[in-house]
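Obj.: predict assembly geometry.
Materials: sequence records (below).
Method: joint structure prediction, all chains together.
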Amino acid sequence: MATVATTSPALGSRERVRRWASGFKERETWVAYGFIFPWFIGFSVFIAGPMIASLVLSFTDYSVIQKTNWVGTQNYRDLIHDTHVATAMKNTLVFTLLSVPLHMIVALCLALILLRIGRAAGFFRTVFYLPSMTPPVAVAILYLLLFNGSTGIVNRVLGWFGISGPFWITDPLWVKPGLALMSSWALGGTMVIYLAALRGVPQQLYEAAAMDGASAWRRFRDVTLPMISPALLFTFIIQTIYGLTEFTRVYTAFFGAGTKTNQTEAALLYAVYLFRQSFEFFHFGYASALAWLLFVVIMIITFVQMRVSKRYVFYQGDQR
Amino acid sequence: MSRLETLQLTPVPPVARRQRRWRSVSTLKAAVFSVVLVGLSIVFVYPFIWAVSASLKPQAEVFDNRLIPKHWALHNYADVFHIPDAPMLTWIWNSVWISTLGALAVTFSSAMIAFGFAYFRFPGRNLLFGVLLSTMMLPQEVTMIPTYLIWKNIGVINHGGQYPLWVPNLFGSAFYIFLQRQFFLGIPRDYFEAARMDGDNYWTMFWRIAVPLAKPALIVTFIFELQAKWFDLMTPLIYLRDTALLTLPLGLKTILDSFGTSGGGQGDWQLIVAATVIAVLPMLAIFAVFQRYFLEGISTQGRKG
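Observations (raw structure tokens):
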């Protein structure tokens, strides 16, 4: 990656600053700033500004209707004692812990299968990808119908094997596993990423491993997994963030006009609670505090994932 | 890092390398493997088939799980356009134009910004690009309330505008800027120097050289955003109140709430399923046409990790 200017390390810092600043005398610099100008507007109006505003709001009781007061850290203290926050956070973590591994494992298996089937791969790749082209609202509707406890096809099929399926949608215990299964249906993106990574593994490595007498499992564990570990890490982080912010499918299936608060306790994900606090109850101050808590949680989890993965992720020399 | 490599868009080659090994696998293994493959395919495709089939059944038979309807009810697709307070046609049109306009806007604004970051060397570039990349990490939840308040104060919400759904796209989007910048960096600099010699200014150089060469990346951006807009429920949910202004996902949710049993409706599931099929089909068509761009675009996404 080219850096701004190749300054020799011998230059003093003042000299560097001078050179840096002299760039602004160049016409090209201003043309460049012209090109990226739309981003400045977008960034300040839709990202930086709202971020700061949201942080400020989180220390007020702003609610559109009533007079706004500065409440200090009251919102943050309230959310510790809000049982819904605890429930929502727990639900979200359980959902993420169920859906992310399921999603990744199934996607990897499908990618491995596609890698082995030669010509037909194109066709089956399309088949496995199609659910990812389905709008989440539609996915949620299909979930309600297919996972229906008494009439749904899922339980019908389970019945063939002598299993009497649970009431996926109404039994609090089975809501999150059902949602995780539903969200693993749309794994096309992850699968395609794995497939690309698997194709990038040099064939010689397998040949060398086979020559050394490594079993298929050993080849998978010691060649395939390390070689595709950057793709695994990437999808792990992205899917975790998606899991923690999951909204559309769960909201569609369980909330909205027909919301009955006591029944939907088990499906109350954090993003859903945040949305309801914001745009159904208009507790903007409190919701801002909720949003920042979510942001901090996501940052911590992402940071830990990156930190821990350093030991396991292997980057090929030419990639980094 | 070589750049052009990241988005070559050669026809995705069939996965053929392992065929030799495949032949040596025993027949039994192959049979088991085929069964697993077909089984998985059914799991992934069955919900579509179920939905299409259910959408053609009369209300009483929606849940009979038959593949071929016992009684055909083709009129469901006519009925779905005549639901009171649910103007499906308007919703479809809203989704079509908002998705298209938003996708076009974000494609060209991102291209401009990406070109600025790719071609020029200017003070502050790396810092700004770093900031841009870091905004990809920001969840929408953090900015949604103040953004709503901005639109509210402008008066858009009470006047029933759909502007919040597409206007932000005029200012580029971090992921697309990243993707297109990669592509622009892969264009040999000589092309630009030659264009300069021919008397091109920076803008015409961007427009005549960079944009045509980056067409694959622009198409990826366009279809990704088209899909994102077609999928989006949260933004319409925040901004749109008037029934006539809704986009298809929110329309679908409205139908679900008023006809599904949880909202106190009559359980007209045949209509809900028909509406669902209508919402799904356009995206499947888009995928059929642009499949290789989707797949290549997503592979690129993975490589940035």
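Conclusions so far: Residues 1-20 of chain B have pLDDT under 50 and may be disordered.
To do: check interface contacts against the pulldown list.
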